[in-house]
Specification:
By secondary structure, the chain is α/β, with parallel strands linked by helices. Helix content is 26%, strand content 18%. The chain has 2 domains: 1-30; 101-354, Metallo-beta-lactamase, Chain A, CATH 3.60.15.
């Protein structure tokens, strides 16, 4: 009996060790290069952080793993439809004139922002799964609102961070082939990984750094999130929000972010935003998600902090990533605006809208 129990224990231990080796091997293979640089208020020499932000709940320490397991075993996900074909939106204009601004919602965090004859694509993703694998991971429930072949010339791509639903390599490789001169902007540490995949015009910026591109100014600004591609590169590259400044004003793209003072700081330093594109999805349960994904209620306050003339929601209705249902973020946003009016315009997938210079 003892021998049998011993063999069982040895066998179980061996299985656990084998699983750990597999996880470690896959995690190592997926991990991206990390930033090596001087210590700053948001970089401790090894990892980035958002100063003053609450600790994320899903880290690889015991506390983080405990929170993650608690969420997974207590999940109450809202309803999502299965994949269905939907008619794409009309092709956006080739470009807009100087002083004009236009935004088109494509899917998830992918938007087309056009200003002063420059076309900016944010966090582009056109693949079926937000995952490192083709056979597993969150699957989209609808096609992109604008077909890839209907996109206008793309001059600039900005990447808010390196998660698979925001930095999709297959889409980026297709963009680089289609528009060889495209300029890609990402946070510190992301350039080597992107160059490994054939993207040659990559600029990595620290928070508050700027670059000029075809007459507009691209600003990297703080937000509140985290980064990793695998198990061993956590917070090794910088996450960023972005501001595009042209002759007719400024457009803000928030990427993934929890709510914090960074929104007010951006408007204090750069002035009010003509357009703010803000995430509203993957926020439930809030006890787990709030450090990294703000709620629709918080998005309302963020738009007000940014002094936005127009705000457009994104990061919802494409990939089931958390416990909020497919339509829940927009419904919660509309409810929140009844209590605290904000300048949000909810666009259909594939819908574009000219952005006014002042509130109507």
């Amino acid at each position: 009996m003892r021998r049998r129990l011993f063999r069982t224990a040895v066998g179980f231990t061996g299985l656990v060790l084998a699983l750990l080796l597999v996880v470690s091997g896959v995690g190592c293979a997926l991990s991206a290069p990390t930033w090596k640089g001087q210590v700053t208020p948001h970089f401790d020499g090894a990892k980035f952080m958002t100063p003053g932000a609450p600790k994320k709940k899903g880290g690889f320490d015991l506390e983080g793993l405990g929170s993650l397991i608690s969420w997974q075993f207590g999940r109450k996900p809202g309803p999502w439809k299965t994949f269905r074909e939907e008619k794409p939106g009309p092709p956006p204009p080739y470009e807009v004139a100087k002083g004009q601004m236009r935004v088109t919602f494509i899917n998830h965090a992918t938007t087309l922002i056009q200003l002063d004859g420059v076309n900016v694509l944010t966090d582009p993703i056109y693949v079926a799964r937000a995952s490192p694998f083709d056979f597993v991971g969150p699957h989209r429930v609808r096609p992109p609102g604008i077909r890839f072949e209907d996109l206008p010339r793309i001059d600039v791509v900005v990447l808010s961070h390196n998660h698979y639903d925001h930095m999709d390599i297959k889409t980026l490789e297709k963009i680089a082939v289609t528009w060889p001169g495209v300029q890609v902007f990402a946070g510190l540490g992301n350039k080597p990984f992107l160059e490994q995949h054939g993207l040659i015009n990559v600029s990595e910026l620290d928070w508050w750094e700027t670059r000029e591109v075809k007459g507009i100014t691209v600003h990297s600004v703080p937000n509140q999130h985290f980064s990793n591609r695998g198990v061993f590169d956590g917070d090794g590259t910088l996450w960023s929000a972005w501001v595009f400044e042209g002759t007719g004003g400024k457009a803000y793209f928030g990427g993934d972010t929890g709510y914090g003072p960074h929104f007010a700081n951006v408007s204090e330093k750069l002035g009010p935003m003509r357009l703010a594109v803000l995430p509203i999805g993957a926020y439930s349960p809030e006890w787990f998600m709030s450090p990294i994904h703000m709620s629709p209620v918080e998005a309302v306050q963020a738009a007000l902090d940014l002094k936005a003339v127009t705000a457009v929601p994104m990061h919802y209705g494409t990939f089931p990533l958390a416990d909020d249902g497919e339509t829940e973020p927009v419904e919660a946003l509309q409810k929140a605006m009844k209590e605290k009016p904000a300048p949000f315009v909810v666009l259909d997938f594939g819908e574009g809208r000219d952005v006014p210079e002042a509130a109507p």
